[in-house]
Protein: Helix-turn-helix domain-containing protein
Amino acid sequence: MVTKQLNASTDEADLTRADSLAREIFSDVANKWAFLIIESLGAGTLRFSELRDKVEGISHKMLTQNLRMLERNGLVDRKVHPTVPPRVEYTLTEPGQALRATVDGMCDWTHRFFGHIEASRHRFDG
Amino acid sequence: MVTKQLNASTDEADLTRADSLAREIFSDVANKWAFLIIESLGAGTLRFSELRDKVEGISHKMLTQNLRMLERNGLVDRKVHPTVPPRVEYTLTEPGQALRATVDGMCDWTHRFFGHIEASRHRFDG
DNA sequence: CAGTATCCAATCCGATACTG
DNA sequence: CAGTATCGGATTGGATACTG
Structure:
């Protein structure tokens, strides 16, 4: 389980609660859109529309939905400028930046084993 | 995009193809069940039923589905022992092991920022 | 034991329309 | 511009039954 090393509490019930919460966080964040958004925000602050352009293929709806989720979990900071038309900027927080390292790692992994994976798919499919 | 550093080819069409393939791999693998399976296989080889017990909450169907996907992408090796009843063992390949480092990173991240995230959620929900 | 196939509910997600 | 709400089709995923 994700929290097997989280042993601050010795209370059984608390451990279970913490466990399910950790699992929830994990399930929230471990999805492709969240990862691609985090990757895009890595370079710095972006507006909603800039993000939509940068994360190719994402729909308006998925972008808002995932941004809310990331904001709720404290990975991105949402700053609204009270201008007209409104300007909303998204920035990675410290936890968000920390997770970016992981996401970067996965991108590197994709490049590194690209050929290997492609070959494996051919073998499997044929 | 995920493959922005993948520049072995100078051909535009190939780059596009590689890009979409990289995105496909990324989308395949960046999901919670795949991550939890990889994490579970980190300690070593496991049978199908052992995996189902270890990855709590996963259904029979999701486990087979994700194992096939991981096998296709060359992250896990599937070894069938022709006994009766059958014995099937799953092991991480080199690319699988490499990705495990990334997944481990995410687990560490969850523990490290657990309190931060919990607090952020409270702030957001209230 | 491991795996496939099927059914059906839950959810995901895109398109569209509407608001401040 | 950024966001919410809604609808309906597509996909996901669990439960169950069946096979070698």
